[in-house]
Amino acid sequence: MTILLILIVASGLVHIVSDYKERWNLTYIFKPLTMALIIGLLIFKSDLEVAYNKWILIGLVFSLVGDVFLMLRPQKFISGLLSFLVAHLCYVYAFYQSVKGNDIHWLALSLLPLGLIYLAILWKYLGKYRLPVIAYFVAIGSMLFFASALLIVEMSLMSKYALVGAILFAISDGILARRKFVKPMKYGQFYIMTSYFTAQTLLALSAVHYWS
Questions:
Q1: Which runs of consecutive H residues, i.e. helices, occur in the chain?
Q2: Cβ distance 203 to 164 under 8 Å?
Q3: Least buried of 56, 140, 179, 206, by fewest C-beta within 10 Å?
Q4: Three-class DSSP category at 37
Q5: Cβ density class 162-184: b for 16+ within 10 Å, e for less
Q6: What's this model's pTM, rounded to 2 decimal places?
């Protein structure tokens, strides 16, 4: 597993540096390669008979599809957004399966205001993207909710990886939304991709360490 993690970090760094230097031929190779390595980590190091692991795997695959759509020129933003929406829903369902039956409704009261505040900040900039962005925000909020619930239900290595991964994914999406709809950010792409690759790796590791 150590070798795979090293390869993921190396591939991710090559993509980030290539993107910064506008070496697009390399970014087209190493962005999907990094996600493919993360998918490989889950496939080779986790038990795919476990429902949680299967849903995380499907989420990773849809994330890879979303990456490809966003890499295309011209960019297929809506197709990419929908792909990542499905990925988030897969992660939500994986977390939900592990916490259902527990009284966790109160947790939503602490998370909902955060999402509404950020959506309110973006609202006037969204234009024709308001409906898909709202759906995406609901998915992100649900992912954070159930990942938090997972940690509350059972403090384990799996739940820690899942929650930190969900938080970093939300941060990556939040920076991406601000950069696209509000204004460009210096080093924005660096922050987006660093948090994104780390998030996906941690979600894969949550499957590798299922309930450990």
A1: 2-20, 24-45, 51-71, 77-99, 106-126, 130-153, 157-181, 188-208
A2: no
A3: 179
A4: helix
A5: bbbbbbbbbbbbbbbbbebbeee
A6: 0.89
